[in-house]
Design brief:
By secondary structure, the protein is mainly alpha-helical. The protein is built from 23 helices and no strands. The longest helix is centred in the first third of the chain and has 35 residues. It starts with 6 loop residues before the first helix and ends with a helix.
Length: 572
């Protein structure tokens, strides 16, 4: 019986002329070939966070406490519950599962990132080869591992309740979907809070508020579980349930992606492109919103008040996002300028996704007006778009606007779009002036916050002023006699009415001029041309062929380079 030679012995006996790739293929198993690329894809911070989380006292004691509570509730349920044993046990299991998923895991994710800023280790991690998204996804992956481990304890018990009477698979899927999805969303929200509030003084207050909010969320989860136990959910998905479920999935899913992109941008280098990914996610979120609106309009009766209401929602959304984007710095680093579009078509469309206050202002403005035209089309062509009878009668596809009922909603939509455009223009001009005066004194990251505060103050001031002007206008022009029949042509021209009309005319003209000037000033950012990429950067971007060596038995053999096998050309 001969003993197989080791790898080092084969190298020594062959005089060092052994193919290292062939030797590696003999040593590596098929499972290693599958797991090696997968392990390279995961970041090392995921392994570190998972080890720290599993070995922590908080996880161990929570794990043991959950086991004790499950055993205790199972014994109590079989002893006390008789008529509704299955539903009672399921509600108790959901309540036990909700505490680690709604409180422990989100707060642990928040503290894991906040501790990096408190200790200053985030700078050491950032200078490694790991990308910012790998750092955030590693911490999120650690939370998901804990979530799976908590679910593994209670999954057999939940499966056992399905065998009892009064439990449907839809009830179990609803509870698990809400608990798991809510835990992931709260964890991402905790990471966002940790990346937004980095100082120790703010961090203490935010941690207290966040812990209280998680406690309130757990109380809401308990109320939701009791509601499931009282009402039950025995049927499948109907049309109403499908609309509500799809709307909640679109809302929380897209918001989670937006928060995740925001926290990735917050820990990246100041010279990196922090805006493109966020703006893409914002555009995706608006697209999902309009797709959900089309689902509602296809299943419900159309009302001409719907477009105005929807545009109000979209307008307030873009006010917040536009204020934040207008607060960005207009000075682009050379790294970002290398990625600027070089063609005319790219400058017109793709430049809106690049960083900069001017591009952000135009991006928000373009989306607001795009939403206006989309809702205008829905208001005009609602008969042919959301009425299925035109499939049978082809003549209904022709445009019908004889009643002109859709014009009642156009006025409200125009007013909303005009006011949003004016608010965004004021915020953009204010931030452009602020960056020119004290741009070097403002710390990076505080510009969007200042812009949001200024925009909110302007909106509040104009809203209060409009409310007062409306009160004066109604009191001076409308009496009790004409309160029910409002007609511009039958009004008497009083001094109050004349002043109000003059004010509205002057206000509209100056708002239009301010918007035009802001658009002209922001369009100058498109004139910024891309810079050439240095040769050393091009060389660094080229993939390098790293040679993998077998593990030796001594220091010299481990770190030494194996001689290459001579090729046929060299022998010739």
């Amino acid at each position: 019986m001969t003993q197989e030679q080791s790898a080092i012995e084969k190298i020594r006996l062959s005089g060092g002329e052994v193919d290292s790739d062939l030797l590696l293929d003999q040593q590596v198993s098929n499972l290693d070939r599958i797991l090696d690329p997968l392990s390279d894809w995961f970041s090392s911070i995921l392994i570190k966070e998972a080890r720290q989380a599993v070995r922590s006292r908080q996880f161990v004691w929570t794990y043991i406490l959950q086991l004790v509570l499950i055993a205790a509730w199972t014994a109590i349920g079989f002893a006390t519950l008789q008529d509704e044993l299955g539903m009672g046990l399921l509600v108790g299991y959901f309540i036990i599962l909700g505490f680690p998923l709604a409180v422990i895991i989100p707060f642990s994710g928040y503290r894991s990132l906040a501790r990096e800023f408190d200790d200053g280790t985030i700078r050491l991690i950032s200078i490694t080869t790991m990308k910012p998204r790998q750092i955030i996804l590693g911490k999120l992956g650690s939370a998901l591992i804990q979530l799976v481990m908590y679910l593994a304890i209670i999954a057999p018990c939940i499966c056992f309740t399905y065998l009892l009477q009064g439990i449907s698979i839809w009830t179990i899927l609803l509870g698990l979907s809400v608990s798991v999805g809510g835990s992931i969303f709260l964890t991402i929200f905790g990471l966002f809070l940790a990346g937004s509030f980095r100082s120790r003084s703010l961090g203490v207050g935010v941690s207290v508020v966040f812990s209280i909010a998680l406690g309130l969320g757990y109380l809401l989860w308990i109320a939701f579980c009791f509601e499931i136990g009282r009402v039950g959910y025995l049927g499948g998905f109907g049309s109403d349930e499908y609309l509500v479920t799809s709307g909640l999935i679109f809302l929380f899913g897209s918001t989670a992606l937006l928060l995740l992109a925001s926290v990735v941008a917050q820990i990246s280098f100041p010279s990196d492109n922090r805006s493109t990914l966020i703006r893409i996610v914002i555009l995706v979120q608006q697209t999902l919103f309009f797709s959900w609106v089309c689902q509602i309009l296809c299943s419900t009766e159309f009302s001409f008040e719907i477009p105005t209401t929807l545009l109000l929602v979209v307008g307030h959304y873009w006010l917040v996002m536009g204020f934040l984007m207008c607060g960005e710095s207009s000075d682009l680093s050379r790294r970002v300028r290398r990625a600027l579009p070089r063609t005319l078509t790219g400058r017109l469309f793709l430049s809106l996704f690049m960083p900069g206050s001017g591009r952000g202002f135009l991006f928000a403005l373009a989306n607001v007006w795009a939403a206006f035209f989309i809702l205008l089309v829905l208001a005009i062509f609602e008969r042919t778009l959301f009425d299925g009878t035109w499939l049978v009668d082809r003549q209904r596809f022709s445009f019908r606007a004889s009643t002109f009922a859709w014009q009642d909603s156009v006025e409200g939509m125009l007013n909303c779009t005009a006011f949003v455009s004016w608010y965004l223009s004021l915020a953009f001009l204010f931030n452009r002036y602020l960056w020119k005066r004290i741009g070097g004194q403002v710390e990076l990251g505080y510009g969007p916050v200042i812009s949001l505060v200024f925009g909110g103050a302007v909106v509040a001031f104009v809203s209060i002023l409009a409310f007062l002007m409306e009160g004066v206008f109604i009191e001076s022009t409308l009496g009790s006699a004409v309160a029910s029949s409002f007609n511009w042509y039958s009004m008497s021209l009083t001094p109050q009415f004349g002043l109000t009309l003059l004010f509205c005319l002057v206000f509209g003209i100056q708002a239009l001029l301010i918007t035009i000037y802001a658009v002209y000033l922001a369009s100058q950012d498109f004139l910024l041309v891309a810079v050439e990429t240095p040769q050393r950067v091009l060389v660094e971007r080229q993939p390098t062929n790293k040679r993998r060596l077998p593990v030796g038995e001594s220091i010299d053999e481990i770190f030494g380079e194996l001689p290459r096998k001579p090729s046929g050309n060299e022998n010739a």
